[in-house]
Amino acid sequence: MLLMGIIALKLATDHHLTDPVLPPGWLPTRIVQSIAIPICMGVLLAQALHWERGFRLLYRLLGWKWSAPVMLVAMLVCLAPARPPFLVAFLATTALIGACVVREDNGLAWFLRLKPVAFVGTVSYGMYLLNSLCMHGVRAILQRIGLAYPPVIFVLTLAVTVTVAYLSHRYYESWFLALKERFSRLRPVPAQQSRVEIGARDEIGFKQGAGAPGLGGADI
Fold first, then answer.
1. DSSP state of 145
2. 40 and 6 in contact (C-beta within 8 Å)?
C-alpha cells in the first residue's frame, strides 16, 4: 500500500495536482519528482511473487507460454510514438518481467539463455549503477574529437558500461555476494540431488496447490 501511495503521489505531482502543498521547485517537490515509478513497480512485482497467493494470481495472468512475447510487443508498441505513454509502457515492462520469471520455459526463454544475454544479466546491477557515469565520460571524450553522434555514443557507452560492470562484479560485488551464504537460512541443495528430483518435488507441490495453467506437465 505504501508503494502504491508513493506512485500515486509521484503521478499527482507530475500532473501539478499537488501544487498547493508541493509548489514547483521546492526541494520536497523535486524529491517526489525524482521517484522512479518502474523501480516501484518492480518492487511490487517482487513482493507479489514472493507471496504465495500473489504468485498463484500472477501465474494465472502471466503464466502462459506466449505471455512474455506478447508483453514484449506491447512494450515496444508503447515506446514507438514520439510521445510515448510512459505509464502504460512501465506497466507493460513490469508484466514482461513477470512473464519471464513466473515460468522458466516462457516464450522468450530461448533468447534469455543466449550467452551474451545471460552475461549482461550477471553484470546488470553494475550496469544499472554505472551507466550514467560511463555515458558522461564517453560523451565528453567524443565531444572533444567531434564524434558525439547518438549512435556512436550508444555503442561506446554500452561497451564501456559492460566492461566496467564486469570488473565491478568480478573484483568488488562478488566478494559481498559470497558473504550472503553466511547469513542465509536456506541450506544449499546437496550435489547428489538431481534437477529431475527437484523438479518432480516442485511439480507435486504445485499440483497440490492452485493448479495454475502450465503446471503439472501441461504445456500451454
1. H
2. yes
